[in-house]
Design a protein that fits this description.
Elements (H helix, E strand, L loop, with lengths): L1 H14 L3 H14 L2 H14 L4 H13 L3 H9 L9 H13 L3 H19 L11 H13 L3 H14 L3 H17 L3 H14 L4 H13 L3 H14 L4 H13 L3 H14 L4 H14 L3 H14 L4 H14 L2 H14 L5 H12 L3 H13 L13 E3 L5 E3 L6 H13 L6 H22 L3 H22 L5 H16 L2 H32 L4
Antiparallel strand pairs: 1-2
Helix pairs in contact: 1-2, 2-3, 3-4, 4-5, 6-7, 6-8, 7-8, 8-9, 8-10, 9-10, 10-12, 11-12, 12-13, 13-14, 14-15, 15-16, 16-17, 16-18, 17-18, 18-19, 19-20, 20-21, 21-22, 21-24, 22-23, 22-24, 23-24, 23-25, 24-25, 24-26, 25-26
Length: 524
C-alpha cells in the first residue's frame, strides 16, 4: 500500500492542478479506505474547477456514503447557490437530492426551479419557460414521493403541455393516473370524467382519459368501449387508435384489436413495421395463419434488407408450419447482418430444434470462432507492441478456441472428448477476452472477438451440461463466467442474464441428477 501511495503522490505532484487527475487519486484513496485523504482530494478537485458541477457532486456523493448527510446536502446545495442559482441548476439540484433519497429537500428545490421559471419567462405558460418535459415529469415524481399530490398534478399538467411525441403524451397520461392512484382518488376522477364526457359529446381527449382510468381501475371492457368512442371522434389520432388497439387486446377482443392494428399500420407510417408485427401476432392468435404470414411479408417489404424484419418473418413462418420459408428468411438475415452474429445464431438454434445438428454446430462455430462469419466486413486488426517495441498484429482469436471447438463438436456428436482440457482452455480464453476488452477501449468493433470467445465458453459449458459426468465442470464454468461478466462493465452485463439463466439450468440439472441417483440407489 505504501508503494501505491507513493505512486499516487507522484501523480499529484505532476498533475496536481488537473481536477481529473486529482479525482482519480481520490477514487484510489477511497478504495484503499483512506476516507479523510479522499475527502480532501474530492474537495480540492471541486475548488480547481468551480464551474464544473460534477466535482461537487462527487464530493457530496462520498460524504453521503460516509453517512455525513448534512455535509453532503450542504455541498450539493452549492450547485445552485449565489451566482450559480438558476432554473436549470435548481432542477439539477432537485435531481441529485432525489437520487439519494432526500425527497423533501428535492421537492423544495423543484418548487424553487418552477417558481423561478415562471418569473423569468414572465408567464405561467410552461411552453415559454426553460424547463423541459423530462424536468416536469421528474418534478411530478418528486412531489408525489414527498406527499405533495396537488403539486405533482400541476407538474403533470405542465408536462402534458410540453409533450411532443406519442410516447411523451402517453407517459404524461400514465403519470396522472399513477398520481391519482397514489392519492386514492381514482374512482372520483372516473366519475368526473364521465360527467365531462356527457357534457362534451365531441371531446375525444376526455374519452381517451376515461378509457385509461377505467383500465387502471381494472375494467378493460369498459375501457375499450370508451377508447372506441374516442377513436370514432378522432379517427386520425394515432395515440387514440394505438390505445384502442391495446385495450381491445387486453379485454380479449382479439378480432377487433386486429382490425384496429391494421388501421394503425396505415395511419402511422413511421411505426408501420411495429404495428404490422402486432397485427401478425393477433392473426396467429385468431388462427389466421395465411394472413399472418402475408402480414409478416409486408414487414419485410417495408425494409427488404432488415435482419430484424427477416427474423420476424422466420418466427411467423415457423409458427405457421412453413419451415422452408422460415429457414430462407433466417439465411437472408444472416447474409445481411454483416456485423451481427444474432441472425446466424437464430438460424443455428432453429436448425438444432429440428434435429439438424451438424448444420447447427457449424453455424455456431462460424459465429463464435470465425472472424469472417456471414460475409463479414474485413476484420479490424489491433496492434500490440512486442518486446522489441515494434507493432505486430494482435490475434483475433486465441489458439485455445481450437481445443474448445473440438471438444464441443465431439460432445454434440457423442464421441470421446478431452473435456477437462477444453475447460482448462476455457479458463485461458476468459483471461484472453479480458485483455482484449481492455485493448478495445470501449470500441464495439474491437471488443467483438472477445465477445465471441466468451460465447464459445458458453457453448462448451452448455453442451457439457447435457452429460452427467461433466455437469460439475459445466457449473464451475458458468460460475466463472458470471464472475467474469460482473467484472467487465457494460459488455459483461450484456451476457450476465444469459449466463445466470444457464447457470440456473446447470444447478437444476445437478439437482435432478442427484435425485435420479438417490432414486436408483438400492435400498439398504
Amino acid at each position: 500500500m505504501a508503494a501505491a501511495k507513493a505512486i499516487w503522490q507522484r501523480l499529484l505532484e505532476e498533475r496536481g492542478e488537473d481536477p481529473v487527475a486529482v479525482t482519480r487519486v481520490a477514487d484510489w484513496l477511497r478504495q484503499a479506505g483512506d476516507a479523510e485523504g479522499a475527502k480532501a482530494l474530492y474537495r480540492r478537485a471541486a475548488e480547481l474547477a468551480p464551474e464544473d458541477p460534477r466535482y461537487r457532486e462527487y464530493l457530496g456523493e462520498y460524504l453521503h456514503v460516509l453517512g455525513e448527510s448534512e455535509a453532503a446536502v450542504a455541498v450539493w446545495t452549492e450547485l445552485a447557490a449565489g451566482e450559480n442559482r438558476g432554473v436549470k441548476t435548481l432542477a439539477r439540484l432537485s435531481e441529485v437530492l432525489g437520487g439519494f433519497g432526500y425527497d423533501e429537500r428535492a421537492a423544495s428545490a423543484a418548487a424553487e426551479a418552477d417558481a423561478l421559471d415562471v418569473k423569468e419567462a414572465g408567464t405561467a405558460d410552461p411552453t415559454a419557460g426553460a424547463l423541459e418535459f423530462a424536468d416536469r415529469m421528474r418534478f411530478a415524481e418528486l412531489f408525489s414521493r414527498a406527499g405533495r399530490a396537488d403539486a405533482a398534478e400541476g407538474q403533470i399538467a405542465k408536462a402534458e403541455a410540453l409533450a411532443v411525441t406519442l410516447e411523451e403524451r402517453r407517459a404524461a397520461l400514465n403519470a396522472a393516473i399513477d398520481a391519482d392512484q397514489a392519492a386514492d382518488r381514482l374512482e372520483d376522477r372516473i366519475e368526473e370524467l364521465k360527467a365531462t364526457a356527457a357534457a362534451e359529446p365531441q371531446n375525444a381527449d376526455v374519452r381517451l382519459r376515461l378509457a385509461l382510468y377505467q383500465d387502471a381501475a381494472g375494467d378493460p371492457a369498459l375501457a375499450a368501449a370508451s377508447a372506441a368512442e374516442a377513436s370514432a371522434l378522432a379517427p386520425a389520432d394515432v395515440i387514440v387508435l394505438a390505445t384502442l388497439t391495446e385495450l381491445q387486446e387486453q379485454a380479449g377482443f382479439t378480432a377487433d384489436a386486429a382490425a384496429s392494428a391494421r388501421r394503425l399500420a396505415g395511419l402511422d407510417r413511421q411505426r408501420r413495421a411495429d404495428h404490422l408485427m402486432r397485427l401478425a401476432e393477433l392473426q396467429l392468435r385468431l388462427g389466421q395463419q395465411a394472413d399472418a404470414l402475408r402480414t409478416a411479408r409486408e414487414v419485410v417489404a417495408g425494409a427488404p434488407g432488415s435482419p430484424e424484419a427477416l427474423a420476424f418473418l422466420s418466427r411467423v413462418a415457423f409458427r405457421t408450419g412453413d419451415e422452408e420459408a422460415g429457414f430462407d428468411a433466417l439465411r437472408r438475415a444472416a447474409r445481411n447482418a454483416t456485423r451481427d452474429a444474432g441472425p446466424l445464431l437464430a438460424l443455428a438454434d432453429a436448425l438444432a430444434e429440428r434435429f439438424r445438428t451438424d448444420e447447427a454446430v457449424e453455424l455456431l462455430w462460424r459465429a463464435f470462432a470465425d472472424d469472417s462469419f456471414a460475409n463479414a466486413a474485413p476484420a479490424v486488426v489491433v496492434t500490440d507492441t512486442n518486446r522489441s517495441g515494434a507493432a505486430e498484429p494482435s490475434r483475433l482469436a486465441p489458439p485455445e478456441l481450437d481445443a474448445m471447438r473440438s471438444a464441443t463438436l465431439r460432445l454434440l456428436t457423442d464421441r470421446p472428448a478431452d473435456v477437462p482440457g477444453a475447460f482448462a482452455a476455457a479458463a485461458k480464453v476468459r483471461v484472453w477476452a479480458a485483455g482484449r476488452l481492455e485493448q478495445s477501449k470501449g470500441s464495439p468493433n474491437l471488443a467483438r472477438p472477445a465477445q465471441r470467445a466468451i460465447l464459445a465458453n458458453l457453448l462448451l459449458a452448455q453442451t457439457a451440461l447435457e452429460r452427467p459426468e461433466h455437469r460439475d465442470a459445466a457449473r464451475a464454468e458458468f460460475a466463472a463466467l458470471e464472475e467474469w461478466a460482473n467484472a467487465h462493465g457494460r459488455i459483461g452485463q450484456e451476457y450476465l442474464s444469459m449466463i445466470r439463466e444457464l447457470h440456473k439450468q446447470a444447478d437444476g440439472a445437478g439437482a435432478a441428477s442427484a435425485d435420479e441417483a438417490a432414486t436408483e440407489a438400492p435400498a439398504p
